[in-house]
Amino acid sequence: MPVSFCKTERQDRLYKMIGELADRFHERAADYDETGEFPVLNTDDLKAAGYTALTVPKEYGGKEGLTLYEFVLLQERLAQGDGATALSIGWHLGIIMEIFEKKRWKEDKLAFIAKEVMNGALFNRAATEPQTGSPTRGGKPQTTATKVGNKWHVTGRKTFTTMAPVLDYIGVIASIEGTDLTGEFLVSRKKGGVKIEETWNTISMRGTGSHDLVLENVILEDDELVEIATPEMKGKASGWLLHIPACYLGIAMAARNVAVKFANEYSPNSVRGPIKMIPNVQRMVGEMEAELLQARHVLFSIADKWDHTTSRDDLGPELGLAKYFATNNAISVVDKAMRIVGAQSLQKKNPLQRYYRDVRAGLHNPPMDDMTITKLAQAAFDDYER
What pTM did the predictor assign? Predict the structure, then answer.
């Protein structure tokens, strides 16, 4: 079994709970991948288990109030069952964690979203657009919000709206007409003018339902503008994004398990005993273990550091590093697992070909590798100048 990072009885309890769900989701993963349908059964099970409300703080009615370390721990285990489900619910859980951590929303809105999430509502933020690319690169949203009397009129198109088929609320990022400001608007899925166009048809993470969100003159109340971006917010560290590397490490761990099982059991008549006795197979398994341990120790140590430091804004480069190691090491681990299993890994019934496709998506989740490396270089130069 892989090295355990559970440190408390509570973590053991939650890890066991999500492990049982992950194993159930694993049985459905191939079918959802084949059809490209959103895994509604999985989200229903997560709701029933209370998982979708775990990042609501206790002071707002939450039962657990996960730390970042615990969030990452559970997401990694969930991804071993189904990466698409883990990545999807990770956005919901992570953004809820951020909302209550930073408390930029007014108190009544915080209480409202907490109550809704405790009752099973799902939330994600819609920021990416065709013209702007990744919002982490600073593009100005083409989606616009215009004040008409005491109402907001919001129009635009968003891409990569993960969990679109089941979202109840969406944090829409829009440019405020007549100003240089950008705001986040709390939009109910039931609002008139809110539509989902089913555009998601990729070879990776097929079950995330990351369709286009179309807003056609959606009319919102004045207080549904929940946050305005300010210059000092730019570049702020976001620990909750560690759910992304946790997901891809979980997928890589699943691939590692398939390869190790195969090496233990497969015994062609060209060799004596199972192929685990072959030095080259042992070398690749050892390299997989080294890459997983490296990435996991970096991930969990940074998550733990986030939970226990008062200088979180200094952790930006390290947060990026966790994702950099996790994504690239995950790709390498899956590749080695497929080399061990051989041509059988390319069969559609073999989960390794799905893991191979899914881990590639990590390269396109924030932060991007080039931005991470640039920040690390800047930190080195800054340290030298001091």
Answer: 0.95
